[in-house]
């Protein structure tokens, strides 16, 4: 008995343990299979019929060397890196400056602009109007078509604004008495005290740009400008085979298509997995605090 209530029986705990084990296995085994297939030798992949759970003949990085040899996948990886870095930087600048302006209640036009941001959370402009706007600005078939239309998220603006509103008013008032301009308040007080929420919002934008797929499919007709996720869709989901010319191998032997597909999948996953642990500790302090204070 604990606190007047009976402890769970042994049978109940065993059932819970078995249930959680099955769920973990259902999540982990496919991921292990993707890693193993991408690293297994070509002969083992061919013999297994295309999917290897545990490689038994050593580890072979041929699939990774093939897709990173300067062909289609390498180019798509560089494009995704450019879109992610540039897009995240632009998005953070726009979101933080807009969030700061909306958090200053004395700013001219503060309430109407805040109302517009809130309305954009409720109403989506739609696919055709968005396409027409991008077309009118001459961004079709340009990487800016993937970056600019999603450079400001209303949700992220609201979260950043709420965090700025919750900053100690005494510090801001003291700096203003000392003659600090609004720009200096933003740079030297707002940003340094809001590193947690900026890190989390930056992760949101970065993951969004890295996984950018639909906008690229919609606005980019030139396959040489495709980001990694669109290449992933074409050569992994749709099953289109990558030849030696596509991989930049020329007449060299091409690894099994399954190994290439799993290697592309791993390359698309690894960057997010590497960044996430460094940002995770900021989640509760950044987003939740900002949302509650809003």
Task: List the keywords.
294 residues, mainly alpha, 2 domains, 69% helix
What order do the helices and strands come in, and which of them pair?
Layout: H1 10-39, H2 42-48, H3 62-67, H4 72-103, H5 110-122, H6 127-136, H7 144-147, H8 154-165, H9 169-177, H10 182-190, H11 195-210, H12 214-219, H13 228-237, H14 244-247, H15 257-280, H16 283-293
Helix pairs in contact: 1-15, 4-8, 4-11, 4-13, 5-8, 8-16, 11-15, 11-16, 13-15
Pfam families: BPD_transp_1
Subcellular location: Cell membrane
Transmembrane segments: 14-35, 76-101, 113-132, 144-164, 185-210, 260-279
Structural features, described:
The chain is mostly helical. It has two domains: 60 residues, no CATH class; 164 residues, MetI-like fold, CATH 1.10.3720. It has 16 helices and no strands. Helix 11 packs antiparallel against helix 15. The two termini are 43 Å apart. The C terminus is likely disordered.
């Amino acid at each position: 008995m604990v606190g007047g209530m009976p402890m769970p029986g042994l049978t109940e705990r065993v059932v819970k343990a078995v249930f959680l084990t099955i769920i973990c296995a259902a999540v982990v085994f496919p991921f292990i299979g993707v890693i193993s297939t991408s690293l297994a030798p070509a002969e083992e992949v061919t013999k297994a019929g295309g999917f290897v759970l545990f490689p038994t003949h050593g580890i072979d990085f041929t699939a990774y060397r093939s897709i990173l040899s300067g062909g289609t996948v390498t180019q798509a990886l560089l494009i995704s890196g450019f879109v992610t870095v540039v897009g995240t930087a632009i998005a953070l600048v726009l979101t933080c400056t807009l969030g700061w302006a909306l958090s200053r209640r004395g700013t001219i036009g503060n309430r109407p602009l805040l109302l517009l941001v809130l309305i954009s959370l409720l109403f989506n402009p739609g696919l055709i109007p968005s396409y027409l706007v991008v077309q009118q600005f001459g961004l079709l078939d340009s990487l800016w078509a993937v970056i600019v239309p999603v450079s400001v998220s209303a949700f992220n603006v609201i979260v950043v604004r709420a965090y700025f509103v919750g900053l100690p008013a005494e510090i801001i008032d003291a700096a203003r008495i000392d003659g600090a301009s609004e720009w200096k308040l933003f740079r030297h007080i707002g940003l340094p005290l809001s590193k947690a929420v900026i890190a989390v919002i930056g992760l949101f934008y970065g993951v969004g740009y890295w996984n950018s797929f639909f906008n690229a499919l919609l606005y980019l007709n030139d396959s040489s400008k495709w980001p990694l996720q669109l290449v992933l869709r074409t050569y992994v989901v749709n099953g289109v085979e990558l030849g030696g010319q596509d991989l930049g191998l020329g007449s060299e032997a091409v690894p099994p298509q399954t190994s290439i597909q799993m290697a592309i999948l791993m390359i698309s996953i690894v960057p997010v997995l590497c960044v996430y642990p460094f940002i995770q500790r900021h989640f509760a302090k950044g987003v939740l605090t900002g949302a509650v204070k809003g």
